[in-house]
Amino acid sequence: MLEFLRARVPSLSASGRRIAETVLDDPERVLTMSAVRLGEASGSSVGSVVRFCHSLGIASFKDFKLRLAAQTGCPGCRCARVPAGSPAGRDTIDDVFAITMDGLSRAIDSVDRAAITRAAVAMRTARRILIPSSGSSQPVATALGAWLSWSGSSVAYPTDAPGRGWRLTGPGVPAGEPVHLEVTGLGDRFLAARADLVGDYPTGIDVLFVTDAGTVAGIPRTTRIEVA
């Protein structure tokens, strides 16, 4: 890997050469770095580190470190150095496993155990745990909520979180049957702005609320809103 990198240095961009030189100067130190730290150490950026890996035909910085570790070893871990050209097999698998376990061990050592304990106690004694999310974070929030519910905690998702209760009346709402809508994140400033915009009917605005789950609620300009 290091010989390959040395041969590629002249063809790299300016930022790529700085990253390559940082790696070649101290490859074992680079194994302990994140992409952010390598970017800082080489005077470049995270994006430059990613592009550097791609220019070498490597998909990610993680994959780059695995290839680098297979040749250089990892400081302080039990993995043996793998001679260049060694065939893939059991030894390589054991080396990668050892590197991974060493990384986990370092992560455990860096954890603030007291803070984790306080967080665990707070979650265990909480009457209700709110898990806000949006977009791509929703599957993670759902999985976390399922695990917490399984462990006996009361969990609420964003749609269940406390919000502003609105009572809707006016044209289109059956007489004597006001509609109640709960909206999170909008307060008195929104209501005041809307009231000002719809005050000169027939001009005004119609509002559509769309949740991440795809549920739609519409409020025409003729609808009256009261805070419940």
Describe this structure in words.
With 228 residues, the chain is mainly alpha-helical. It has three domains: 2-108, Winged helix-like DNA-binding domain superfamily/Winged helix DNA-binding domain (Arc Repressor Mutant, subunit A, Orthogonal Bundle); 113-158, no CATH class; 164-227, no CATH class. The protein has helices spanning 2-8, 14-25, 27-30, 35-41, 46-55, 61-72, 90-110, 113-125, 138-150, 188-197, and strands at 129-130, 155-156, 164-169, 179-183, 207-210, 216-219, 224-227. A three-stranded antiparallel beta sheet has the order 4-3-7, with no helix packed on it. Helix 2 (14-25) crosses helix 5 (46-55) and helix 4 (35-41) packs across helix 5. The longest helix has 21 residues, at 90-110. It is elongated. The chain starts with a helix and ends with a strand.
Largest sheet: 3 strands, antiparallel
The CATH topology name of the largest domain reads Arc Repressor Mutant, subunit A
Q: Which structural class matches the secondary elements?
A: mainly alpha
Q: Share of helix among residues? A: 40-55%
Order of helices and strands: HHHHHHHHEHEEEHEEE
Helix count, DSSP H or I runs of 4 or more residues: 10
Main-sheet strand order equals 4-3-7
Strand fraction equals 5-15%
**CATH evolutionary superfamily of the largest domain:** Winged helix-like DNA-binding domain superfamily/Winged helix DNA-binding domain
The first-to-last residue Cα distance is: 66 Å
